[in-house]
Design brief:
By secondary structure, the protein is of the alpha/beta class. It is 44% helix and 16% strand. The strands form two sheets. It has a six-stranded parallel beta sheet with strand order 2-1-3-4-5-11, with helices on both faces. A six-stranded mixed beta sheet has the order 7-6-8-9-10-12, sandwiched between helices. α12 links the parallel β8 and β9. The longest helix has 18 residues. It is elongated, with a radius of gyration of 24 Å. The protein starts with 10 loop residues before the first helix and ends in an 8-residue tail after the last strand. The N terminus is likely disordered.
C-alpha cells in the first residue's frame, strides 16, 4: 500500500477528522493517557484516511532515546545486501534497538519516498539506505519533512543532506588497475555498473585514472555497463571475449559481475589466469569460493553498516550530516596472473 502525506496534514487536522482534540490524538499516537476503544479507533481511522505520518524522531528525542531503526534495501538479495543486513543487525542489537528491514523494487523517487514513509509509520526514527536509494532521495527534503535521520551505506560520494559511510571508490579502482598492469596486462576491459548508482561512475573513473597513470589507452569496445549482477558479467564476457583481439584482463565493478564473467570464460575453455585475469569488488562470500579465487577490492560492508547505525543515532541528537570515508584493501588471489 502506498502511503501519502498531503501537504498541510497535521495532528490538529487528524483531531478534527476524528472529532477529538489534538491532545487526544497525541495520546493515541504515543500510547499514553486514558483513551476509550471507540475514540482510539476513530483516531487511527483518521490517521489512515489522511495519510498522516507522525514525527517519530521528535517523539523519540523527547524521550531521549530512539528505539527503532529501519533499513531500506533492494528487493534483489545479494551477498552485498546480506552483509549490510548482518552489520545493521549487529549494531542495533548491541544498542538494544529494534530493527526493521523493508525491501523495495521500485527505482523511482516516488516509490522510494513511499517506502520510507512506510518505515516511519512502522515506528522508525532513523533510516539506513543503500544505493541507489540514497541518491534518489538526496535533495528531496523528505527526511526533514518527516523529522527522521538517515545514513547511506557504500555510496560513491558524500551527500549534502544524508550521512554517508563509504570507501574512496575511485582510488580503489585505480589501485586495482595498477595492480593488474603490474601483473603484465596491457589490453584491459572493464565492466561498469548502472549510472543510477553513484559508485558506478566513480569506479569507472578510477579505472581510467589507473590506465592513464600507466600510459595505456582505454578501448571503448572493452567497456560494458550493466547491473551489479552475474548476468552483466556474462554479457560482458560474451562481448569482449568474442573480439578478434580479446583482453587479457577484465576488471569488474562487483563480485557478482566477476562470477558471471568467470562462468562465461570457463564455458569458452579459457584458463584463468593464464588466458584471462578477472577482478571483483566488495570481497563478499562468493569471492573466495570462485575458481580461481577472486582478486578484489575489499570494502568492510558489515562494519560500514555498523557505523551507519552510529551515524543515525548521532544525527538524531545533533542533526549533523557526516561523510565518513573508511579504508579499502586490495586482496590479491589467484584470479590475476603475475606476468
Amino acid at each position: 500500500m502506498t502511503i501519502k502525506r498531503p501537504e498541510g496534514v497535521t495532528i490538529r487536522a487528524v483531531g478534527e477528522r476524528a472529532g477529538v482534540s489534538a491532545m487526544t490524538v497525541s495520546n493515541v499516537i504515543n500510547g499514553v493517557g486514558r483513551v476509550s476503544p471507540p475514540t482510539r479507533a476513530a483516531v487511527l481511522a483518521a490517521i489512515d484516511q489522511l495519510g498522516y505520518v507522525p514525527n517519530v524522531a521528535a517523539r523519540r528525542l523527547a524521550k531521549a532515546r530512539a528505539t527503532t531503526l529501519g533499513l531500506l534495501y533492494s528487493d534483489r538479495r545479494t551477498p552485498f545486501i546480506d552483509s549490510v543486513l548482518l552489520g545493521a543487525l549487529r549494531a542495533t542489537n548491541a544498542r538494544g534497538l529494534q530493527f526493521i528491514a523493508q525491501a523495495e523494487e521500485g527505482l523511482t523517487r516516488a516509490a522510494v519516498e513511499a517506502a520510507v514513509r512506510a518505515l516511519v509509520q512502522s515506528g522508525a526514527a532513523g533510516v539506513l539506505l543503500v544505493p541507489p536509494f540514497a541518491e534518489l532521495l538526496s535533495g528531496s527534503g523528505l527526511f526533514a519533512e518527516l523529522g527522521v535521520a538517515a545514513a547511506a551505506i557504500a555510496t560513491g560520494q558524500g551527500l549534502p543532506d544524508i550521512s554517508t559511510v563509504r570507501v574512496d571508490n575511485r582510488a580503489a579502482m585505480a589501485a586495482m588497475t595498477l595492480h593488474v598492469v603490474r601483473a603484465g596486462h596491457r589490453r584491459i576491459g572493464f565492466v561498469a555498473g548502472p549510472q543510477s548508482f553513484s559508485v558506478a561512475d566513480e569506479r569507472l573513473a578510477g579505472f581510467r585514472d589507473g590506465m592513464a597513470a600507466s600510459g595505456l589507452a582505454v578501448d571503448p569496445s572493452l567497456i560494458v555497463r550493466g547491473g551489479f549482477e552475474p548476468a552483466t558479467g556474462a554479457e560482458a564476457g560474451r562481448a569482449m571475449l568474442s573480439l578478434p583481439e580479446r583482453p587479457s584482463a577484465i576488471l569488474c565493478s562487483s563480485d557478482d559481475m566477476a562470477a558471471g564473467l568467470i562462468g562465461e570464460a570457463h564455458r569458452r575453455g579459457l584458463r584463468l589466469p593464464q588466458d584471462l585475469a578477472v577482478t571483483g569488488f566488495d570481497d563478499t562470500a562468493i569471492a573466495a569460493r570462485l575458481w580461481p579465487p577472486l582478486t578484489v577490492i575489499r570494502q568492510p560492508v558489515g562494519d560500514m553498516a555498523f557505523r551507519a547505525v552510529e551515524q543515525v543515532l548521532a544525527s538524531l541528537r545533533s542533526r549533523q550530516v557526516e561523510d565518513l570515508v573508511v579504508e579499502f584493501e586490495l586482496v590479491g588471489r589467484e584470479s590475476v596472473g603475475r606476468g
